[in-house]
Automatic annotation (TrEMBL):
Keywords: Signal
Signal peptide start-end: 1-22
Gene3D superfamilies in the cross-refs: Outer membrane efflux proteins (OEP) (1.20.1600.10)
Family: Belongs to the outer membrane factor (OMF) (TC 1.B.17) family.
Species per Swiss-Prot/TrEMBL record: Sphingorhabdus lacus
InterPro entries: MdtP/NodT-like (IPR010131), OMP_efflux (IPR003423)
Protein name per Swiss-Prot or TrEMBL: TolC family protein
PANTHER family per UniProt: BLR4935 PROTEIN, OUTER MEMBRANE CATION EFFLUX PROTEIN
GO molecular function, one term: efflux transmembrane transporter activity
Source organism superkingdom: Bacteria
Length: 402
């Protein structure tokens, strides 16, 4: 299994053409739109928000009244034999919630609804960041695969020329061996970049819930988003605040649940003997001698304190993440601009001249390989710099999500 997979990767890399690398193109905006529309992560968060909304509606409903019928004094002995002395009572009872239970319950449900809605927004923001990162990584892996393919083609040409020169006696056999070793390294690198490219394609396809794993990321040059005012809480901070509000509401509900409810009832009683009727009424209330809900009250208060601390931490963390992301984005932009300047064009010109000199016998194979390696390193650094910029931009956009 492993041997066949390794062989397949190597064989695929050797025939990897530009058409294979540049598969079905998808822009960042298209990937974001498809992910928002199709991702199960978003569907799950939306369903949870809808469920919380339904619970908030249900929380304001009062208890239902209860209808009861009670039959007494039948099937006994003496005067109570049969149904002659039966008393039948039809009554309606209603539990009356005291202590503000209903309003406290509604407050908890609304706070949980707000938390669920913010969780839905958080899921969208997290998916947006993940898609941006996956799209940028796919673009970088495509560029690395193209570079590896070009390097393999160049190594094949060098190996061919080295063999010609060795056969003509212009180069020692060691030069041909070195060229063949460089070719083997280039093919191995091409196989590695192919594996990473296929993995990146599948990751993006999974995030956007696409049936087509053959995706190609088109280049997207986005500018940095504007600074978010300090007074505006980040999405993570809003989520922590909503959790704190829910915890405070649960404290109030726990205290309200400590107040016993009253159940009032009223009805009519019919006496079988004489067929008289009479009204009945009653009131019942629990005696809070043992259970005063102290454990739940203390637990809710502790959770409220924890939520307050979590809010403070979220505020501090949001400020740090925003500042770090903007600093990293600035550094990545400076590095990318420096690498994208004359460095690449000069390295390409140096390689062109060195190849001409090598073909003319003025430069050795080692010198040509050194120049080729320098150009490859410069291009890889440029690819990494662009990826670093995209990652920093994705982090900043997520940090600024409101």
């Amino acid at each position: 299994m492993h041997i066949s997979l390794r062989a397949a990767l190597l064989a695929g890399a050797l025939v990897f053409s530009g058409a294979a690398i540049r598969a079905e193109p998808i822009s960042l905006s298209q990937a974001l739109a498809k992910g928002t529309e199709s991702s199960p992560r978003v569907t799950q968060a939306k369903a949870q928000a809808d469920a919380a909304e339904a619970r908030a509606r249900q929380a304001g409903v009062s208890p239902n009244p209860e209808l009861s019928i009670e039959v007494e004094n039948f099937a006994g002995s003496g005067a109570f034999q049969g149904l002659r002395s039966t008393e039948t009572t039809l009554a309606v009872s209603q539990r009356l919630e005291l202590g503000g239970k209903r309003s406290a319950r509604v407050e908890v449900a609304r706070a949980e609804r707000d938390f669920a809605f913010l969780s839905y927004k958080t899921a969208l923001a997290d998916l947006d960041r993940d898609i941006r990162l996956a799209h940028a990584e796919l673009r970088a892996d495509e560029d690395r695969a193209v570079l590896a393919r070009d390097n393999t083609a160049a190594a094949e040409e060098l190996a061919r020329i080295a063999k010609v020169l060795v056969d003509a006696g212009r180069e020692p056999p060691l030069r041909q061996l070195r060229a063949e070793a460089a070719l083997a390294e280039a093919r191995a690198e091409q196989a590695r970049t192919l594996g990473e490219l296929l993995s990146s394609r599948r990751l993006l396809a999974t995030l956007i819930w696409s049936d087509d794993p053959e995706l190609s990321a088109t280049f997207t040059d986005e500018s940095a988003p504007p600074n978010v005012p300090v007074e505006l809480p980040s999405l993570n901070e809003q989520l922590a605040i909503a959790q704190k509000n829910a915890a405070l509401a649960r404290v109030r509900l726990a205290r309200a649940n400590a107040v016993p409810d009253v159940t009032a009832s009223g009805g009519v009683r019919r006496f079988a003997e004489g067929r008289e009727t009479a009204l009945v009424a009653g009131v019942s209330i629990a005696m809070p001698f043992r259970d005063r809900n102290r454990g739940n009250i203390d637990a809710a208060q502790s959770e409220s304190l924890a939520a307050e601390s979590a809010t403070m931490l979220a505020r501090i963390e949001a400020t740090r993440v925003r500042q770090d992301a903007r600093i990293l984005l600035g550094a990545a932009e400076v590095r990318y601009e420096a690498l994208a300047g004359l460095g690449i064009s000069q390295a390409e010109e140096a390689l062109r001249l060195t190849r001409i000199g090598y073909n003319a016998g003025k430069f050795s194979l080692l010198e040509l390989l050194d120049v080729q390696t320098a150009l490859t390193t410069a291009k890889l650094n440029l690819i990494q710099a662009r990826l670093d910029r995209a990652e920093a931009l994705a982090a900043l956009i997520r940090a600024n999500a409101l």
